[in-house]
User: Fold MICOS complex subunit MIC60 from Xenoophorus captivus.
Amino acid sequence: TESPSMPLEDAADAVRASCVDNDFALALASALPEESLKRGVYSEASLRARFNSLRSLARRVALIDESHNTLYQYFLSYLQAALLFENQQEAPPTQLRTEDLDSFKLLSYASYCLEHGDLELAAKLVNQLRGEARRVIEDWLTEARLTLETRQVVSLLSAYANAVGLGTTQAP
Assistant:
């Protein structure tokens, strides 16, 4: 779970080779992100484990805004994270309000979403983080986006292949 999956370039080449005359399938195969073709993507379990390790660090720097405050502010942020008892996971509300945009709540909501298999909503919530907490978790967010984008293209290819298969197997 620590490393990405195998590169998807061979699979994309196989799709391109078998669908030379199908423009839609070729367009989908070429829509795969370059990084997933060369390196692969992280699994959802791997992203969950990585998020859980970054979550405590993001909580420690939750009070630090974009201006990179003083050492005293870092100390206060670390102290608040140590003294604040909160739910590790909390179900996100259907509508986010201004008071829900607190870094601690956003991290709690994202953790809940990851544990319940909703990577997309977790990425949306983490995207709302600001300041140093956002900087800490930015690499995770990039990898989550890459995984979601790749998953979406693969799902479209799979659905299209199923539709084409159903269309050719139906009796006249």
User: Anything to note?
Assistant: The chain has a mean pLDDT of 83. Residues 39 and 52 are 23 Å apart (CA to CA). The two ends are 48 Å apart (CA to CA). Helices lie at 9-18, 23-30, 34-38, 44-60, 71-83, 103-115, 119-126, 131-169.
